[in-house]
Write a structure and sequence with these properties.
The structure is a single chain. This protein has 6 helices and 4 strands; from the N terminus they run βαβαββαααα. It has 152 residues and is α+β, with helices and mostly antiparallel strands. The protein has one domain. Strands 2-1-3-4 form a 4-stranded mixed beta sheet, with helices on one face. α1 (22-33) links the parallel β1 and β2 (40-44). GO terms for molecular function: protein-disulfide reductase activity. InterPro entries: DCC1-like, DCC_oxidoreductase.
Length: 152
Amino acid sequence: MPKNMRPPEGVESWLMFDGVCNLCDGFVNFVADHDSDRLVKFGAQQKHMELLKRAGAPTDLSTLVLIQGDRHYVYSDAALRTMAVLDWPWRGLAAFALVPSPVRDACYKFVARYRYLVFGKTESCRVPTGDFRRRFIDYRPEEEEADPISST
């Protein structure tokens, strides 16, 4: 894996995704399942446009956005840097960062262009429940007490 793919100790990783995209939702589920250290938090781009603007990141839903501290990453860099914090063997996929970024990003953009056609989309962003809810950047523990399904 290339050096410096993982954030420095103590820097959070926020993965911002298209909340109505089934492919993106599947990637978020995959990351949550293979991030045993719970290093990545999630947020639907539709809900966090202001945060994306403050980070200087795209707001057009054309890419995943990974925010780590004061830096943001898009396209294949966002996906591969996310993979770099996952458990082994998935972390090894970050080695694809050795492929030149124009090649990686062309592939990423091709898939992104057709993601709704191939994988479909939902009418609205899903509402996370239970333990998965705690992985979202807008999670508030005080809301959990009033939510009867939060412990599921």
